[in-house]
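We were asked to recover a plausible sequence for a given structure. The inputs and outputs are reproduced exactly as logged, with field labels preserved.

PROBLEM: sequence recovery
POSITIONS: 342
GIVEN STRUCTURE:
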């Protein structure tokens, strides 16, 4: 339930509503935005609105019908902007993220990061801990990979995103990363989600490869419920019968999810496609469908890459993608006043 206050409600009136909510054993969550509102959480079943409507300064009481509360637009109608090391993501900003699948060496990371920055991208990606299907495949450099990322950030000024593979590794990743990724295979790792909720760093929550919109948003709800409202969602392809690509990029989820949530949503065409030649067209489509950014794998020597070389763009291809994405974003902004243009 959401208790909406009058425009001129005083802090005392808000305080009285919060106290009334809490005296009934529920949690009161004041919500930022241009209207003053208080979310009621932790109620099992419907809450009787009458007593709250009696309180001074209360304008209306809205029943929240969705199972997700804090990530939903009913609670928070305006788009959120999440700051990643000073880079805004969401609500009118288009953010380009590029970098290798995995940090392989200091030299490799530096070379790629310089290309990524020269292309105009704002955030550098690179896995230090890799979730690999095979236990015999390259697992990442671990903490040394994180230290390399920190030095690359120092040189290039680009904030870095990297994955926390499990609850135990979260602390060390949190020390180094500007944006902490929770990968597709971990979308419903609830202890990891709860740990992310306690973090003061923003979280990139990838969609599980078989997750519905509701499951994805409920996973994000764990993080917000824990006290961290800096969540960016990332569509990265789902499992289907199609075998022309590694996964099927579900671009239809972008307008669907933007209708439901105020959180920014970006698209990773690399892990969806699994093939280099599909990545740029899919990234362009992601811009057109209203994504707030794209995250793309880039490698200067994809044939030598220790993971995901076949889907990594070469630097010149990434540079072209960045130029095209910027041009498309400008075109879309010129339609900004039109209905259904995001
Ligand atoms: C990644 O981005 O490095 C990754 C492993 O992606 P996903 O979790 O989407 O497979
Ligand atoms: Mn990869």
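RECOVERED SEQUENCE:
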């Amino acid at each position: 339930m959401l208790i909406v206050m009058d425009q001129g409600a005083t802090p005392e009136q808000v305080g009285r509503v919060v106290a009334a909510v809490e005296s009934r054993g529920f949690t009161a969550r004041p919500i930022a935005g241009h209207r003053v509102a208080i979310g009621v959480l932790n109620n099992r079943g419907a809450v009787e609105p009458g007593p709250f409507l009696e309180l001074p300064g209360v304008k209306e009481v809205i029943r929240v019908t969705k199972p997700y509360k804090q990530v939903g637009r009913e609670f928070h109608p305006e788009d959120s902007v999440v700051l990643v090391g000073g880079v805004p993501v969401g609500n009118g900003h288009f953010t380009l993220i590029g970098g290798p699948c995995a940090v392989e060496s200091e030299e490799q990371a530096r070379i790629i990061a310089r290309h990524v920055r020269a292309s105009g991208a704002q955030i550098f990606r690179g896995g230090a801990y890799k979730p690999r299907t095979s236990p015999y495949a390259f697992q990442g450099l671990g903490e040394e990979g994180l230290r390399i990322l920190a030095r690359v950030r120092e040189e290039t000024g680009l904030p870095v995103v990297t994955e926390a593979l499990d609850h135990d590794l979260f602390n060390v990743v949190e020390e180094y990363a500007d944006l902490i990724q929770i990968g597709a295979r971990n979308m419903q790792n609830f202890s990891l989600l709860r740990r992310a909720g306690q973090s003061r760093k923003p979280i990139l929550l990838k969609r599980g490869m078989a997750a519905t919109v509701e499951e994805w948003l409920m996973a994000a709800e764990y993080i917000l419920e824990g006290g961290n409202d800096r969540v960016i969602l990332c569509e990265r392809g789902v499992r289907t019968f199609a075998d022309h690509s590694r996964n099927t990029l579900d671009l239809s989820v972008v307008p669907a999810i933007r209708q439901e949530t105020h959180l920014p949503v970006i698209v990773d065409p690399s892990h969806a496609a699994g093939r280099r030649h599909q990545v740029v067209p899919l990234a362009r489509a992601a811009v057109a469908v209203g994504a707030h950014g794209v995250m793309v794998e880039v490698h200067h020597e994809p044939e030598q890459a220790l993971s995901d070389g076949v889907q990594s763009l070469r630097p010149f291809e990434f540079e072209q993608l960045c130029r095209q994405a910027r041009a498309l974003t400008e075109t879309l902004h010129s339609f900004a006043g039109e209905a259904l243009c995001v």
